[in-house]
Every structure is written in C-alpha cells, then in structure tokens.
Amino acid sequence: MEDNELALFRRAAAGDVNAQEALFAGRIDGLTRLAYLITRDHSAAQDVVQDALIASIRHLDSLREAQRFDAWLSRIVVNHARTYCRKAGRSVPMEDLSLLPRVEENGAAIPSPEESILRNEQARRLAEMISRLPEKHRLPVLLMYYQGMSEREIASALALPSTTIKSRLHAARKRLRTMIEREEKYGRLQ
C-alpha cells in the first residue's frame, strides 16, 4: 500500500466518509466480479458486495495491518458470497464461466473464427469441470485463474495457511488433469 493510500486508509478507519468512499470506489468492480464468480448471479453479486462493504466499513478500524486491506476485503466478500449461496440452498454452477473476461490479456493476435470457437468450447468444458470440483478446491482455482490473485492473497482471503492453498491448488489441477484425460480417452460424459 502506497503512502497516499495508507493515509487514505487511516482517514477512512477514523470514520472519514469521503476517505471511505475513495478507498472503496476503485475496488467495487473487482469485488463484484469476485462475488459473481461465487454466486453466479449479477444481482446477488451486487447485493453481496454492498453487504460486504457495509460490514467492512463497520470493522475497518479493527484491521491492524493496512497492507492486508485488499486480502481482508476479499475475504469478507468471499464469506458473504458463500453465505448467500448457503442461504439460497444451492451449489454454485460454473457453466458460464468461460464468458467472463480474463484478468490478464496476453496481447496475442486475434484468433480466427475457428480458433475462437475451439477456444470457447475448451474454456466452457474446463469451466464445467471446475464446477464439479469440491468447493475447497474450486474457490482457490477461481481466485487464482479467474480473479488473478496470488497464492498468498488467496490464503489471506480464505483465512487459510499458504501451504493449504498450495496443496488445494495442486489437488485441483491433478483432478482437472484426470478429468481431461478421462474425457479425451472415453469421450465427453453427459
């Protein structure tokens, strides 16, 4: 956290409403995207973020390390989104995940229509496989590959040790690899 943002954080934690608004304003889109990855509902994602922001403003003064603000805020959004899904009594389908824009752009040339169709189909199938992972494996995958968070940020956001995140990501990649190999060998399971 840069010095000017640290000063903004301190003013926000002290109750300065303008500082709070400035501190959160640039983060709302990313937080909404994170909530959407979990809830798969645009309206619910917006509600989740609003509830998470209210909760975080109320407890902003309890955060001791300002440098951990983004991870702390992400954890609040993840927890609110998970609570929403639990209360809605549903698991989170991930079949449309391929339609979301990626966090990173590699600057590669625009693919041909055939390549685009193939990539979209592969992305859709991968998203379908990710949706079949248990939540403890699915969330770290979503946060890393679709939200662009580092292992350390994921660990902080999920309040788990980094070694647990590494282990879960490894297990998730291994399960996904097995699913892909099985699909290639036996064809797509319906």
Describe this structure in words.
This protein is an all-alpha fold and 190 residues long. It is built from nine helices and no strands. Helix 4 (42-59) crosses helix 5 (69-88), helix 7 crosses helix 9 (162-186) and helix 8 packs across helix 9. The protein is elongated and about 60 Å long.
Q: In DSSP terms, counting alpha (H) and pi (I) runs of 4 or more, how many helices?
A: 9
Alpha-carbon distance between the termini?
A: 48 Å
SS-derived structural category: mainly alpha
Helix proportion: over 70%
Spans of at least 5 consecutive residues with low confidence:
91-109
Radius of gyration, whole Å? 18 Å
Number of strands: 0
Q: Please provide the ordered H/E string of secondary-structure elements.
A: HHHHHHHHH
Beta content: under 5%
What average pLDDT do the residues reach?
82
Q: How many strands, what sense, and barrel or not for the largest sheet?
A: none
Outline: elongated
In quaternary terms, these chains amount to single chain
Give the topology, please:
Layout lengths: L2 H11 L3 H9 L2 H12 L2 H18 L9 H20 L24 H19 L3 H12 L4 H8 L3 H25 L4
Helix pairs in contact: 1-2, 3-4, 3-5, 4-5, 5-8, 7-9, 8-9
In short:
71% of the residues lie in helices and 0% in strands. It is mostly helical.
